[in-house]
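Exercise 3.2. Students should predict the tertiary structure of the chain below and write it as structure tokens, then compare their answer with the key that follows.

Predict this chain's 3D structure.
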Amino acid sequence: MMQNQFKTIESSRVRLRAFQSYDLDNFVHYRANPDVARYQSWENFTREQGVKFIEEMTKASFNSPGVYYQVAIESKETNELIGDCVMHPFKDDPTQVEIGFTLDPQFQGKGYAYEAVKCLVDSLFTELSKHRITAITDVKNEPSIKLLERLGMRREGHFHQNIWFKGEWGSEYLYAILAEEWTRE
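Answer key:
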């Protein structure tokens, strides 16, 4: 993969690709859902925010140190947006990457998120030669915890009341996996 350009990745049921303007309606639909926003940084996601986000992603550089880059998760069956993943190479050490993921509730619990995140992690290790991948999740977010552990990520930290989040102190888990551990799978 070339830096600044995201190359589409596919698995049996999902396609990870760059965001397009036609993703707007589906993107706003699931991001505006309070259940989706529960463990995310936003609330009351608006169409205007969606327009701004997609414009930013079409201009963003993939795999640039310090830059958050969001990837669309598309259903191969319907060719529609069903979620998104983020990757963020650390500015001081771009061989280390933080990831995250969001999925439309109608597709949750069916393995789509696992499939998409597995594709992303595999690409980060094999195509981009990353050394370490991390993810942070709220300790109450059981589905995300299960997904990260299913991927073989290890819980490296438990941060107690480390973040003021939506009107209360929240606690988070830090997960990580090394390239050498991924290749053993």
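Discussion points: The longest helix spans residues 112-126. The chain has a mean pLDDT of 93.
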